[in-house]
Inverse folding.
């Protein structure tokens, strides 16, 4: 592919390509520009109501600026946009209009007496944002216009209205910052549009070269066959009927000839073609266009010789084709000879490219939301532990009895171990290279032993991991171990259990985790009600569900379907 030849300082292509880009830019921007002019004119006019309310003493002057100068100029430009000459003068016209509208706001600041004119500060700031977004001025024009308006404001503020220094400096900070942001956005938007134009142009040129080559080869073959047609029609038929591309001849709306390849593209037999209207093959959305172009061509006009449209096969299947046509004499009368080339695969590939791009954007959004949720958990978990350690440290420093200090240090030690465990879990959750179902199973064993062994509770972990494509993500990892830790903590505090059995199954349908203790059973009350709510909330955040029952102790069952689904409410 050719290298992009953009002058990044002047934002220009070479002269021949630059002209084509401006044509493309005009075509894509025109409707948005008209909408922007209508919206801007409406807002500009409506603010005249505030002029009459806030500054009635100068209403005549402010209304003259709005309704006698700026609004008529906007309407004139809107009307001019429907003229064929607007294509050539769009940028300079919008440049002048932006200067007039911005200068009108500066004039309002001068006409309205201080301090009421300070209200127009926001109006000028809003105007800069509007201009960078909706005026469709290219980067260079917009920068010159914006800095000119800011310069006009500064001159009027210093030389005419004598704005206080504090107000002047504050306004300038906002104006300059807004302008710099606008410049950055405008520059990157134009660079993107130029690159997009260049890539599309390159793809189009490659397609044209490919089709030109095919057309040239076919044209040469057809010319040769036509030349020899006078000596014998059989030579032409031999060529056409062995071609892999559909060839047809029609006069008016009737087919005169269709080669065998046409049977493949349309699904009709040659005999069926001969007895049907040629528009029957064309998709209803394109029939009127095809009819007009055929009539124009037969009457001596110059419609496009090559274009794309849809056909409907006999089976009802819709296909995209590339049509190349020309005029020939058939039995002393003009007829249309054309070729049809199936381009459906190319069209679908383009649609698939767009779909993959959209899916990639959604995936990036999901990952970003995962990281934000994890950081919030990190703040709540580690933040709470470190806060408790800090408070206990201050209490320990003030304590006088040795026994109290020992208890405080023991609590600090326990909190420190919890903090280390939290950090380790979060680090594993953030490191995508270490996230796997086997690593998750191993971590279940490690955390189960480290939490239950000090309390004399035996733990047995059984795992079964099938060969699944999707591996656990960061959000699943963090939420699963938060739930796991909550369950084991409840076992220690409330169950009076002697042993815990943990079962993990990962299949193509989902993740299934069961924690069964042999304690006194479960009853929802007090803090355990809050703990259950936390477990349900975290399970729903990864698209799963949790259930708790009293079966020979307490049984906690967690089910998360695969592939993973993240409800939006679970990430709030």
């Amino acid at each position: 592919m050719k290298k992009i030849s953009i002058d990044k300082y002047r934002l220009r292509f070479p002269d021949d390509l630059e002209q084509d880009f401006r044509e493309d830019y005009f075509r894509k921007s025109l409707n948005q520009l008209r909408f922007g002019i209508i919206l801007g004119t409406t807002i500009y006019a409506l603010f005249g109501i505030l002029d009459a309310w806030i500054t009635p003493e100068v209403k005549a002057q402010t209304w003259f600026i709005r309704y006698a100068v700026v609004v008529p100029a906007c309407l004139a430009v809107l009307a001019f946009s429907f003229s064929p000459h607007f294509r050539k003068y769009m940028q300079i016209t919008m440049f002048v209009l932006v200067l007039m509208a911005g200068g009108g706001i500066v004039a309002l600041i001068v006409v309205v007496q201080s301090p009421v004119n300070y209200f127009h500060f926001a109006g000028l700031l809003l105007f800069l944002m509007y201009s960078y977004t909706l005026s469709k001025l290219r980067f260079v024009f917009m920068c010159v216009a914006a800095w000119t308006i800011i310069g006009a404001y500064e001159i009027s503020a210093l030389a005419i209205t004598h704005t206080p220094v504090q107000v002047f400096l504050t306004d300038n900070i906002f104006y300059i910052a807004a302008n710099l942001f606008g410049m950055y956005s405008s520059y990157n938007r134009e660079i993107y549009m130029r690159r997009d134009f260049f890539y599309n142009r390159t793809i189009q040129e490659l397609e044209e070269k490919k089709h030109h080559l095919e057309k040239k080869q076919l044209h040469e073959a057809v010319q040769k066959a036509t030349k020899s047609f006078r000596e014998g029609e059989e030579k032409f038929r031999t060529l056409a009927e062995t071609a892999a591309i559909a060839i047809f001849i029609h006069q008016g709306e009737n087919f005169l000839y269709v080669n065998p390849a046409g049977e493949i593209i349309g699904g009709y037999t040659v005999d069926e073609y001969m007895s049907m209207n040629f528009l029957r093959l064309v998709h209803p959305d394109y029939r009127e266009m095809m009819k007009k172009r055929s009539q124009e061509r037969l009457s001596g006009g110059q419609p496009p010789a090559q274009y794309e449209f849809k056909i409907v096969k006999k089976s009802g299947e819709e296909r995209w084709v590339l049509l190349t046509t020309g005029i020939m004499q058939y039995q002393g009368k003009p007829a249309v000879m054309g070729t049809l080339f199936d381009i459906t695969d190319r069209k679908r590939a383009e649609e698939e490219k767009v779909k993959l791009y959209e899916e990639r954007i959604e995936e990036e959004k999901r990952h970003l939301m995962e990281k934000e949720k994890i950081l919030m958990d990190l703040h709540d978990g580690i933040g709470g532990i470190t806060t408790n350690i800090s408070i206990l440290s201050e209490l320990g420093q003030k304590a006088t009895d040795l026994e109290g200090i020992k208890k405080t240090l023991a609590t600090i030690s326990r909190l420190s171990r919890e903090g280390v465990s939290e950090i380790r879990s979060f680090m594993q959750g953030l490191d995508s290279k270490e996230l796997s179902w086997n690593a998750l199973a191993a971590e279940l064993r490690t955390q189960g032993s480290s939490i239950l062994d000090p309390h004399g509770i035996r733990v047995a972990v059984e795992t079964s991991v099938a060969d699944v494509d999707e591996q656990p993500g960061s959000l699943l990892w963090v939420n699963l171990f938060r739930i796991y830790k909550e369950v084991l903590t409840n076992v220690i505090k409330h169950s009076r259990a002697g042993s815990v059995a943990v079962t993990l199954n990962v299949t193509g349908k989902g993740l299934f985790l069961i924690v069964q203790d042999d304690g006194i059973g479960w009853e929802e009350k007090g803090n355990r009600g809050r703990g259950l709510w936390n477990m349900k909330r975290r399970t729903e955040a990864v698209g799963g569900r949790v259930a708790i029952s009293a079966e020979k102790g307490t049984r906690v069952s967690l089910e998360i379907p695969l592939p993973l689904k993240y409800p939006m409410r679970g990430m709030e």
